[in-house]
Amino acid sequence: MADETKGQRTPGGRPNTPGGRRPDRNGGRSGGGPRRSAGRGKDARPAVSKASPARVFALQVGKAVREREAFTHDVIEAQLLEARLSEEDKAFATKLALGVTMSAGTLDELIDHACTNPKALMPEVRDALRVSAYEIIFLDKSPHAAVDQGVELVRSVEPRAAGLANAVLRKLVDARRTFPFGNPDDSLVALARKNAFPVWMAKSVLDDRGKDELKAFLEASNEVAPLYVAENALRAEAGEVQAAFGEARAEAEPVTVDGRAIPRCWKVGNHRAIARPEVAALLKGGKAIVSDASAQAIARLAVPRTMPGRFLEVGAGRGTKSILLQNVAFERFGAQMPLETVDNLPFKAKIQEKRAALTGVRLDEAHVLDAQRLRAKFGDEAFDAVFVDAPCSGLGTLRRHPEIRWRITPRDIESLARLNAVILQEAAYCTKVGGLLTYATCTITKAENELVVERFLRSSIGERFKIVPLGDAAAAKAPGASRQDAAKALFFASNLRSDGPDAHFAAQFVRVR
Question: Which residues form the active site (predicted)?
């Protein structure tokens, strides 16, 4: 596949930068000034919208995500509680809102090339144009209806920009005929554009994982993520969760990840099932939690085979992994293990404590601490096992967090890799001789995964550890085995696939001296 990331020109004739032009934090363009022709008259007032309720909802979500840098799913969930929409409109509104976030950079590239002065676009006008641009380019909808509704949507936020909207959207209808402006089979830029990805990100995956994995990753990232539920054996009676799904007439099936069966993990066929009273009661009562199957698999890897005297979870967030870890401990030892957690945000520590109380989890202490100072806080060899759930780019979770792809930058990934190398070494100092150290991410970049491991093993503290193979050792020894096969023998690495769990990575070490 040709590397066309430099000097590539789109139909508008302007050079394309990796990922298109990226919105600034205010949703506009760096250096963009006011433009009267775009409807910035001070006396202009938003009109009553003639756009459909679903499109208005998608516009409101996009505006909130842009202004607050919020997570799209969180905004949708909150606004659906107040929206007066039919079930059909809710489904379409959700599809639009997620799709616009997912494809924002690609949509902006197209909108910019259809505008005379894109820097002058009001952020609210751009929000509205994105909704209709997504319909025109990525959905099999009537172009005429999309243009008409797009004009009304823009009119609702800036009446004087209706003419501009009509011109821009009609140009996009014409552009749709040749989109993605190249052959995705031999053009990296066209492949990235077709799947609404920044070009730099597609190139990174191509360089790290190869062409076949890139295509599978791009396609799967744009699909709806499956729903996985973890049964909480600390609260639920045996068979109670499965029975509730049966009463709710929701199909729930057991799960395997990378050939490993995951006990008490259920894949739910109908996403709406969690809103049904029987299932909602389980979640509200702490008898079950929503958690990706790969995350559940990693929690099983992180718990030692013998009861640890002291276990540390680094990067505990809102406490989901804590619940999973203690469930594994209860299964293996018949009791929960001594568990301490670390997170650098006080509000997350409070959430951990509340969730622990709800779910019956033993949580000895939730430390609010910068993970780069673990050794200073706990000293050397303080824990029998340490689990680092590392901060990462989250590229393995793009289906659940579509905003990531246009917010993250190559520099962010480099910074996270450096940070995690420090955190892993700090955690290593706190691990006892004979103790277990686990490093995990929810991303697929080599910089944050394999290269962090390599850097750790070359460090002075890393030299005191040996890696624990987590994968298929037989595959690595088979005739003709590649370096990739060897890597699979060492690490847990779930690939992102349609209708499968998120992409996660884990490496494990034992301290030998």
Answer: 442
Provide the strand spans (E) within 378-502: 383-389, 431-441, 465-468, 492-493
Active site residue 392: no
Rg over alpha carbons for the chain, rounded to the nearest Å, is 25
Tens digit of pLDDT for each residue in 363-421? 999 999 999 999 999 999 999 999 999 999 999 999 999 999 999 999 999 999 999 99
From the list 115, 392, 430, 442, the catalytic residue is: 442
247-296 pLDDT, tens per residue?
988 889 999 998 889 999 999 988 888 889 999 999 999 999 999 999 99
User: Among 303, 266, 283, which residue's Cα sits nearest to residue 359?
Assistant: 283
- Known binding residue 343? Answer is yes
Helix boundaries (H) for 337-409: 346-359, 374-378, 404-407
Nearest-angstrom CA–CA distance, 95 and 402: 12
Residue 278 — φ and ψ, nearest 5°? -65, -40
* Kind plus residue range of the DSSP H or E element containing 252: strand 252-257
Residues 6+ positions from 154 with CB-CB distance below 8 Å: 125, 128, 129, 161, 162, 164, 165
Sign, CA torsion 253/257/262/267:
negative
pLDDT per position as a tens digit, 81-103:
999 999 999 999 999 999 999 99
Tell me if 173 sits within 8 A of 136, measured CB to CB. Answer: yes
- Right CATH for 301-511 from 1.10.1200.10, 3.90.480.10, 3.40.50.150, 3.20.20.70: 3.40.50.150
389 annotated as ligand-binding: yes
- The burial of 383, by beta-carbon neighbours within 10 Å (0-12 exposed, 13-18 middle, 19 or more buried), is given as buried
HSE at residue 426, side-chain half, CA atoms within 13 A, is: 23
The pLDDT-based confidence of 154 (bands split at 50, 70, 90) is very high
Residues 6+ apart with CB under 8 A from 177: none
Q: Phi and psi dihedrals of 443, rounded to 5?
A: -135, 175
- The domain spans of the chain are 36-182, 301-511
Q: Which CATH superfamily groups domain 36-182?
A: NusB-like (1.10.940.10)
The answer on whether 148 is annotated among ligand-binding residues is: no
Judged against a pLDDT cut of 80, whether residue 21 lies above it is answered with no
Non-local CB neighbours of 77 within 8 Å, separated by 6+ positions:
none
Task: Provide the whole-model pTM.
Answer: 0.88
